[in-house]
Structures are given as C-alpha cells and as structure tokens.
Amino acid sequence: MNNPQLDTDGRLRHLLSIEGLPKKILNQILDTAESFLGVAEREVKKVPLLRGKTVCNLFFENSTRTRTTFEIAAKRLSADVISLNVNTSSQSKGETILDTVDNLIAMHADMFVVRHSQSGAAHFIAKHVPNHIHVINAGDGRHSHPTQGLLDMFTIRKYKPDLHNLRVAIVGDVLHSRVARSEIHALTTLGVPEVRVIAPKTLLPTHVEKLGVHVFHDMKAGLKDVDVVMMLRLQNERMNGAMLPSSQEYFKTYGLTQEKLSLAKPDAIVLHPGPMNRGVEIDSSVADGAQSVILPQVTYGIAIRMAVMAMLAGGQGGQA
Amino acid sequence: MKILIKNGRVIDPKNNIDSKLDVFIAAGKIVGLGKSPDSFVANQTIDASGLIVCPGLVDLSTRLREPGNEYKATLESELQAAVAGGVTSLACQPDTNPVLDEPGLVEMLKHRTKQLNLARVYPLGALTRQLQGKELAEMGALREAGCVGYSQANIAITDTQVLWRAMEYATTFGFTLFLHAEEPFLAKGGVAHDGEVASRLGLKGIPSAAEALALASILRIAKETGARVHISRLSTADGVDMIRNAKKQGVNISCDVSANQLHLTEHDIAYFDANCHLKPPLRTQRDKESLSAGLQDGTVDAICSDHTPVDDDAKLAPFAEAELGATGLELLLALTLKWAQQEKLAMSHAIACISSASARILGIPAGDLSVNADADICIFDANEYWKVEPKALKSQGKNTPFSGLEIAGKVKVTLVHGQVVYQSE
Description:
The complex is a heterodimer. By secondary structure, chain A is α/β, with parallel strands linked by helices. Chain A is built from twelve helices and nine strands. In chain A, α6 packs across α12. By secondary structure, chain B is α/β, with parallel strands linked by helices. In chain B, the strands form three sheets. In chain B, strands 1, 2, 3, 4, 5, 16, 17 and 18 form an eight-stranded mixed β-sheet that branches. In chain B, strands 6-7-8-9-10-13-14-15 form an eight-stranded parallel β-sheet, with helices on both faces. In chain B, strands 11-12 form a two-stranded parallel sheet. In chain B, α2 packs parallel to α3. Chain B is globular and about 65 Å long. At the A-B interface, α5 of A face α6 of B.
C-alpha cells in the first residue's frame, strides 16, 4: 500500500495524518519550525519562500483559530491566501467537494488547507488532485489533525527536550478527538516511552490500546508522576448521546484542577488544543497557572504551519 | 432448437455428478446427460473441452435498482451482468423506489425482465409496507404476483411485536422471510466494523454485538413461531455460532454470506477506500475465518454476491458519505472458486454454495442439471485468469473493492431455458 502522503522518493507530498510518517520527517518539520520562530520577532514578519504561490483555506467546518493561524503562516511565507468557508448545507444543495476543489484548481491554487467534518475528507481530496497540488489536513472528522499534533510535539520538545524519557497523559474525549489520535501517533513515533489515555469508557475508542497507549479510567492513577498533561476539549453535545450524565459530573471526575495536577511531577506542563471549556475539562487556575503552556502552543502553531507549507511547496530537496 | 454441449466436465452438486459428460438440450430443457436421447440431432454444438459445465448460478441477494434508481443501474445492464457472471436466476431486494410492496410493481418487474430474456428474476417482496416495519405488506397478493419471499432489505424491524406477527403470518402460508441481522440503534451512524481500523481512522463503528442482538431476537421469535427464516449476509463469528446452535435446536433457519466477506476484512479499508463501504461492514480476520468454517460445516448455507451497483458520483465522497455497496454479479463465481481453492475444497462444494443451495432456499426450480430440468447452464474455464477492470464490467455499477485483482474462473457461455444468452469474446 502506497503511503499517499509521500512521493516516490519518500518526500512529503501532502500532510494528511501523522500516522504513516517516518520519525525523520516529523523531526524535519519540527526543526524547520524552529528556524521560523524568529520570523515573528522581526520588524518585517515575512520571508519570501512562497511568493507567487496561492494557498487556499478550504473550511467545510467552522473554525476561527486554526484558519487564522494557517492564514498568518501562509502570509508570513509571502503566499497569496484565499479563505473559504464552505457551508456544508449549501454543499448538500449541489456542489460536491470535488466540484469546489476543481474550481479552485482552475483558479490556479497551489495548496489546499482542508477542514471537514468527515474522517478521510483530506485523503479523499488528496487522491483526486493533480500531482503539483499539495493538501494539508487541518482536521478531518475524528481522524486526524496533524499540524496540531506537531505543534504539541514542538511545545513538549521546547520544555522537555528529552522525549525518550517522558511519561505523557492525554485526558478526555479521545473517542471523538482527531487531536488525540494525532498526538498518540506523534508521541509513539518520536519515541516517548509511556503514553497514557485517561477517560471514562464511553469516551474511548474500541481497542484504543492497539494505538500503543496505556488506558486509565481513574484520573488520580493516570496522572501520577507524568511529565506532560495533554487535555482535550469536551463538546457540549456529548451530554445528549448518553456519553456522560452532565458536565458537572465530568468536571468532578476528569476536570483538571490544581489538586489533581499536584499528582503529576512538580515540573509537569499542561497543554490544551483550544478552545477551552473552563470549568468543564480544565479549571481556570490551571489554564492560567504556572504549569500551563497553552498560549505558547498557539505561537508555535504558526511556526509549525509555516514549516509544513514551506516543506510542501517551497522546494524541499530541489522541488519546484 | 437442439443443443449439444460436448466434452465438458459436468459438475452438478445436487445430483452428485462430477464427470466428463455430454449434455443434450431440446425445447429449453435438459433431455439427456451422458447418453444421447433417441434420434437427437443437434442444431448447435458447443465444444466444452477443458471447461466446466455446471448449473446456472443462483444469487440470493442483488439490487437491480429499477424502478426508481435507473441512474445507478437498469434491469438491462444488471441482467447482462448476471449472465456474464454465469448467474441465471437471482433474487432482488425490495428497496427500490417505489418499494416493492405492491403486486402491480412486482408484475411490472416480472414482465419487464421476462421481455429482456436474460437471467430469471425472483423478486423478494417487502415484508412490511414501505419497509417501515409497522404494517405487513400484502404477502399473499405479492406471492401471486411472483414474489418468492419477503425481505426488509437493510432495514430492521425494531418493534418485536411486528416481527413476531410477520413471522406468524408468513408461517401460516409457508412463506420465507429474508432478514438482515443488524440492531439499528447500536449500529446508528456506523460505517465500518467497530474495531481497530475504525478506531484508528476515526470512523464510527458498528459493533459485532449489533448483529448478535438482532439475531437473538430473530432466532427466538423464529423458534416460538416456527417461521422459516433466511438470514442474509451474516458477518460475524458470533453470528455463525448462534446460527449453528439454532440449527441444532431445530429452528427452521438458513443463512448466507456475501462473497465480499469471504475475502476482505476491515484492514482492506486502508486509506478510506470507499469501495469497502459495505453493509454489513467488513469485519475481522477471525470473523472471516468463522464464516468460511461455517460454510464448510453447513452452518452457512450459501454465498451471495450482495450485488449493489452505485453510480460513480455517489462514491466520490469521504468514506462515510460515500454510498454503500459494491457491484458483484460478475465476480460471484470467481470469488467463490478462489475461496474454495484457498480452503482446498472440491469444486462441486463451491458450486453448490452458489447454485443448488441458493435455489433450495428460494424454493425455485433451478440450480441443478437433472434431466427434464430447464436448461439453465453456466460453462466456465476454471483455470483462465482475468483481471477485474471496472470499465470492462457489464454492470452499470463500476464500484468494486476487487478492482485490479487477477482472478481465475472465466464464464464462457451462459444458457437460460436452452438459449445462449451470453458468450464471451
């Protein structure tokens, strides 16, 4: 089975999921991002790597933060950026995903940043675009959100450089989370020896242990002596599908408070992909506390997205 | 018209025949096997040297898409596909638009398929009106119009009282119910087997328990009412065990498995291959092995194609939004032979699963080469390999997970009622 993300020489052609990417490429992205961190501190926050290229943000599902950071990243690389919010309801009236994509290709888009509510949407688009077009998955259903996974790794590496010596806990709604799946694949690929997931059984996928994680249902046991706590967002609609009784009960059992955090290592860091539900999955005192690295995550997210775009379209290894 | 099929290896599982015999056909019927009837002079001779001559295949589950979905497939395209696959009799599901719950619709379908003069079509009527699982369809009238059984297609009857009465009523008249076992609440929104692959890909799963739960209700009610029930497209190891036990207890039950399930597992979805979006979902290696073992010990009675042609556009979407189904009529023989070869089974066993066994379940006069039987015959080369190329398929549905596969078993000639209805180039 050919990996649809890599070209025949093993170079990155699309970024669709962390799964299936070799450690070397993950590290290459992280290292490239490092070099882009400084750009934001310059007076002229731009480099000309993507000058003359057109990046199209194609969002079939609403998002403000992710779309904005992709926009900023593309603009700092001097690309022309179009952002489209394709309302799924108007889509169901006629135009298919491929119609939309084909029209934008006819307008000479070079790269698509895609978000869609269905797992596999980015793979689907990548399968149908011509060779010179690159696709970045900005989140597909429950499947994958690779740039989020990468920016989380970048953040962890900043604070805990020795990844081979870490214990990491991912807490919350793993079942519905593309972020969790991307984090798990990134952590295991980069050699983090112990990855834990902590959640009630209703919020864990079947056979989650086969992804290479240790399963905990008790927050206290799961947080014990961890170096990194990665919180997940809990959608309000989970209360409707009999997944959970109430957000209050969830907060009591799985919400991250200072008290629960004190079971982790004293220098443990706390990540969250945003947007946060304060008082549901995380207490404000933790979100704004000394161990929180949630705002640096956002800053690093731009560097990661610049790195990915630059590697895809900006002539890595002599590509056009 | 008199036809002689000579020098072929005749395999007729029902009559325990597997030997080199000539077949003599006159006026649409088989008039002799091995020895020529008196004063038989053939108008046409088919040389079947090196080929296998077997009963025309009988398919237990197909969708022909007419009426209502002609953009997906037409009777003509799909019946051409049937005879190209050696299938001479087939049962079709009632989930057309409108639903096959009115005798008039069934008569029209029978009439149109008869005019086409290709494979024989045996409609399964809707068990309940509009397949809604609430009121019984007019089973008696549907029977008179030509239905051989009653089906809910993929739609479950959630009200167990309705299911109970449907079975009681059907039993009164000796009708067979064709049911697909999937508990709809547990399966809600699911698009793949609830296991390792769906978890990894972030696809909503259909647990194996959805089949077991539905089966538990169906088997229990069948036992209580004595109804004759056929389970269409079994998919799990637990399901096989449950059927095995029910048969031991004397429940009047039979079941089939789709050829897809004998060759594919959840892992074939790979990177969201929409051709693997099927109902029932592709399950695990263990399930696949149990289904195969069930076929070998007689728990599972037959193999169907689950022929479900879908138009290209409907498949061009992310996995969950891509319409489910795959074309199958032209692959049934080759996939069944491949399974038998992998399991080192006799050719006659394989052929029985797609001819005599299926005919027995449908209660139709087909699936054997007895003297005086209608001459519905499939002549194929078991050793000729061909490549599955969607564009070359006769079916209007080009969607198949087996695209590109090199597979043995090529149909050479198909006869229905003593007439050649298909001949390969």
